[in-house]
Every structure is written in C-alpha cells, then in structure tokens.
Design goal:
Length: 140
C-alpha cells in the first residue's frame, strides 16, 4: 500500500520510502536499554517492546503537521548540559522528516535551555501513542 502523496518521505530513495518518518529514542541515564518508538509514513508505529500499532493516514499527517506547527524542523540539533544542570538526566533523540524538511535533535531532560516546544512535542506524541493521556510521564 502506497502512502498518499502528502505522506511520502522527504526523498525518493528506497531507504527513505521504508525508513520511519519520526523516531523518538530514550536513553536512560545509567546504561539502561535504549527505547525507540518508530512511526512510518503508512501509519505503522513500532514501540520499544516491538508492539505494532496502526495509525490512520490522517492521524499520521496530523501528528507530523503538529511537529511542523511546533517549529520542530527549525529547532537546534542539540541542547547540552552546562555546569548548572543535572548531568544524570534522561537523554532523548528525536528525528523527523516531513514535506521535504528534516531534523534530528538530542537533548537531556531537565536542561533549563530546552525550548518549551520540546514538552509540547512530547505531549503531541503521547496523544498519538496513548490517546486520552494529557500529561507525559515524569521522565519526559
């Protein structure tokens, strides 16, 4: 099944057609196992446990448009700790590609300089993976 034109990957290579349009990776602070959620253009969502969920094309487009509205594609690629923040925080890597745009950001939870959009992006993603939930887990 081919995704509608609005959900096509940012480029036409075969890798881009099979690669996720959004990933969220959580790296625990003390060498715990990484957790990755992957969302594909066709609406497949694969959780860290390997569970597969299916979103509609409209849900997928709404989520990606929400990222665009929250200026995800213009955020800085990295938010680092300085001497004033907790170095043992949870690390997140968020990547997305949509309508010819792409971005990958890495951040540590709890950094004072993390933009407010990050919390909104996490909340938006939670609405996709856990409908009805309005607050993210404490580690976000």
């Amino acid at each position: 099944m081919t995704a509608p034109p609005s959900l096509q990957p940012a480029d036409d290579s075969s890798t881009a057609k099979t690669a996720p349009v959004f990933t969220l990776t959580h790296l625990p602070p003390e060498s715990g196992a990484a957790e990755t959620w992957s969302l594909f253009a066709d609406g497949r969502l694969i959780t860290p446990t390997g569970e597969k969920q299916n979103l509609t094309a409209a849900q997928t487009a709404q989520f990606l448009t929400g990222l665009e509205d929250l200026t995800f594609f213009s955020l800085s690629p990295q938010y680092r700790c300085d001497s004033s923040c907790n170095q043992s925080g949870h690390t997140y890597i968020i990547s997305a590609r949509w309508r010819g745009q792409k971005n990958r950001i890495k951040l540590v939870n709890g950094i004072p300089r993390n933009p407010a959009e990050i919390q909104k992006i996490m909340q938006l993603f939670l609405k996709v993976i856990q409908p009805g939930r309005t607050t993210p887990p404490s580690r976000f």
